[in-house]
Specification:
This protein is mainly β. It has strands at 3-12, 17-29, 36-49, 54-65, 73-85, 88-97, 105-113. Helices cover 0% and strands 70% of the residues.
């Protein structure tokens, strides 16, 4: 069993920009299944609407763990999100690693559904 807590917050900025911030604390099972460790995830992103349905963003993301022999993951990300409807969003982008434990480049395509 694993679990955690997430606290997201959004700020409206001038010129139709938005600042999203999130902090998360998780209790995760170790890779060797010998116990548990804490994970701390944080991100801050700046969003700007290109059109009514298309949004752009840049983000700084970190993932720090207390698990032994595991480094912190840091990435600088960017992409676009397209709202198909009020409940479906498709986004694509790229994450660029800025720490040794992060992947150098990670392209992504995602779809999100709100129930």
């Amino acid at each position: 069993m694993e679990g955690g807590f997430i606290l997201p917050i959004t700020f409206k900025l001038p010129w139709d920009f938005q600042l999203f911030a999130m902090t998360e604390i998780d209790i995760n099972e170790d890779a060797a299944n010998t116990g548990y460790h804490l994970n701390y995830v944080n991100s801050v992103s700046l969003h700007h609407a290109i059109s009514k349905k298309l949004d752009s963003y840049v983000e700084f993301f970190t993932d720090v763990t207390t698990e032994r022999h595991t480094g912190w993951v840091g990435t600088v990300d960017g992409g676009l999100a397209y709202s198909i409807s009020d409940n479906i969003i498709v986004d694509c982008g790229i994450n660029a690693g800025v720490s040794r434990a992060a992947q150098d480049w990670q392209p992504l395509v995602e779809i999100s559904f709100r129930f």
